[in-house]
Design goal:
The protein has about 190 residues and is of the alpha+beta class. The protein is built from 3 helices and 10 strands, in the order ββββββββββααα. Strands 1, 2, 3, 6, 7, 8, 9 and 10 form an 8-stranded antiparallel β-sheet that branches. Strands 4-5 form a two-stranded antiparallel ribbon. It starts with a strand and ends with a helix.
Length: about 190
């Protein structure tokens, strides 16, 4: 099993950035804003290319307490979600710098969504990735059979919630974004 740190501060792709770690109801949030990006990041998703990092993009990472997942929503410069990335894990922690990390179980669930007229996010597609990594970790003894089963059960549960538009972690992230917009709105 590997530790996966949620912080992105000082990322070589980015010349300037800001990162804030907050304790929010139900977990820990890392709010990362990329300033000037020198190497944008594009990823594949179900046969198409998504740009998930460029100048002005924002990543919100939420690690719910007592959950076997952590979620990062990658937003464009207009705060529209580009991708939802869910790390399946066997617990969380906080490093000495105060940044959350996960005990990563390799398997991840990705999703894309459309923003509805009322501002809600409607998941339109999901995909599980890194299945080969999970299998290799089991074969190499990096995870136990119990952790292997946990990864699959949690990934299927998360994917089902995403497809039903009933994933609680997204509600926390949307509420955080809404509160941030309200704080920054002129009176």
């Amino acid at each position: 099993m590997k530790l996966k740190r949620a912080g992105r501060k000082g990322w070589p792709r980015v010349v300037s950035d800001e990162e804030l770690v907050l304790h929010v109801p139900g977990g820990v949030m890392v709010d990362y804003v990329a300033g000037e990006v020198v190497r944008p990041l594009d990823v594949g998703f179900r046969g198409r290319t998504l740009r998930i990092l460029d100048s002005g993009y924002r990543w919100l990472h939420f690690a719910p307490v007592s959950a076997n997942h952590a979620v990062t929503v990658q937003l464009d410069q207009h705060l529209e979600p580009v991708q939802i990335y869910v790390d399946i894990c066997d617990g969380h922690g906080i490093d000495p710098d105060g940044v959350p990390f996960t005990h990563d179980l390799y398997l991840d669930v990705l999703a894309v969504c459309e923003v509805q007229a009322d501002g809600t996010w409607h998941v339109t597609a999901t995909e599980m990735i890194d299945v080969a990594e999970l299998n290799e970790a089991l074969t190499a003894g990096q995870i136990t059979p119990t952790q292997f089963e946990l990864a699959w059960a949690e990934a299927k549960r998360v994917e089902g919630q995403l497809n039903a538009n009933a994933f609680p972690a997204l509600d926390v992230i949307r509420a955080y974004l809404r509160d941030q917009r309200d704080l920054n709105s002129p009176p």
